[in-house]
Write a structure and sequence with these properties.
Blueprint (H helix, E strand, L loop, with lengths): L4 E2 L3 E5 L2 H12 L5 E3 L12 E3 L3 E6 L7 E7 L6 E5 L8 E2 L5 E3 L8 E3 L6 E2 L3 H9 L5 E5 L12 H10 L1 E3 L6 E4 L3 E4 L5 E5 L8 E8 L6 E7 L2 H7 L4 E4 H8 L18 E4 L11 E2 L2 E2 L1 H15 L6 E2 L1 E6 L3 H13 L3 E3 L1
Helix pairs in contact: 2-6, 4-6, 6-7
Catalytic activity: a UDP-3-O-[(3R)-3-hydroxyacyl]-N-acetyl-alpha-D-glucosamine + H2O = a UDP-3-O-[(3R)-3-hydroxyacyl]-alpha-D-glucosamine + acetate
EC number: 3.5.1.108
GO molecular function, one term: metal ion binding
Length: about 350
């Protein structure tokens, strides 16, 4: 079994214990800005569901801003979510699974899934696959016309609306739920903490306590919520965030690098944070403060990692402080590597 067991931290899967303890202390000092933790969890689903009819959504590409990219959503009886490149003849669909994660990006942090050939990949999948963990669709086939998905102006709002417009169809079988066997934790690259507790006995709730902490206009933001229809729809419209400096570098020096040369970030589809104020208008205002960065992180980034648990739906309690795609994916990988998942 991995790691040592520490009071308050549970089984430490990665990172220095004293640094983790400092991170937990710093996390606890951040005031809660918005608290939806008393909400009812999403209802239990017994039979797996797919969409009732195909739908298409299009927008400029994430990494090819001058090209329109299309996602075609199709019903399927294949278990889980699948991505298929229609531009690569005879390519196998890529299952949304921790087993198919290729990288979490370097210049632009994002989850890249791949199956078989190195050409058969899809970049920046997190804002798509988060819907697997946040909506009542267990099986879905998504066809793409390239490895570069569209980048929408309001998070994943258009994709959520398309799935809801498609309706649902029940399939044979049974939905499975998983949680961790015990408390687990790891240290993030920015000296934060990702900690997961098992679900309470008899509960199928996923509870998230998320903190963003940046030395810029974003500052400290903390939200607590239960993953259900209200919280997911609210968070799914939050844009990813970048700094004004990063945006400037991508638009100048970044043109020298293939990974960022045609990156489609603009003032509509990302939140741009300067040192003391935003360069564009933030959303998700609560009591005069924008919580857009926290909602995006918790719903469209963190839930994407949970979607990589491909056997079923994840339930439990999560603390996320200074997290990111790399520690998210590392956590899921270690849960599998050390047999720390259990079916509820």
């Amino acid at each position: 079994m991995a790691g040592q067991i520490q009071d308050g931290l549970g089984r430490v899967l990665e990172g220095n214990v004293s640094m983790l303890e400092k991170a937990m202390s710093a996390f606890g000092e951040v005031a809660v800005d918005q608290d939806w933790s008393a909400d009812e969890p999403a209802p239990r689903i017994e039979k797996p569901r797919t969409i009732a009819r195909p739908m298409e959504v299009s927008a400029p590409g994430t990494f090819s801003k001058n090209a329109i990219r299309t996602l075609r959503l199709e019903p399927t009886e294949m278990s889980g979510w699948w991505l298929q490149r229609s531009d690569i003849p005879d390519s196998l669909p890529i299952k949304v699974s921790i087993r198919n994660v290729w990288t979490t990006g370097e210049i632009v942090s994002n989850i890249v899934l791949r199956s078989g050939s190195s050409h058969n990949y899809v970049r920046l999948v997190e804002h798509i696959i988060a819907l697997k963990a946040g909506m009542d669709v267990d099986n879905l086939l998504i066809k793409l016309d390239s490895g570069d998905p569209p980048l929408f102006n309001e998070g994943s709002k258009e994709l959520v609306e398309a799935i809801n417009s498609a309706g649902r169809k029940e399939l044979e079988g049974k939905v499975r739920y998983f949680t961790v066997k015990e408390r687990v934790s790891l240290l993030t690259p920015h000296n934060g903490v990702l900690l997961i507790d098992p679900a309470d006995e008899g509960s199928l709730s996923l509870d998230i306590d998320c903190v963003r902490d940046f030395p810029n206009a974003i500052g400290k933001q903390r939200i607590r919520f239960v993953n259900n229809e209200r919280s997911f729809l609210h968070g799914s419209t939050a844009r990813t965030n970048t700094t004004a400096r990063q945006k400037f570098l991508v638009s100048t020096v970044g043109k020298l690098f293939p990974e960022s040369r045609n990156l489609g970030y603009n003032s509509k589809n990302v939140l741009i944070a300067g040192k003391s104020k935003y360069s564009n208008t933030p959303t998700h205002m609560h009591e005069g403060k924008s919580l857009e960065a926290a909602w995006h992180r918790a719903v469209l980034d963190l839930l994407a990692a949970l979607a990589l648990i491909d056997e079923g739906r994840f339930v439990g309690k999560i603390i996320d402080y200074k997290g990111g795609h790399y520690p998210d994916v590392e956590m899921v990988k270690l849960l599998y590597a050390h047999d720390l998942l259990v079916e509820v």
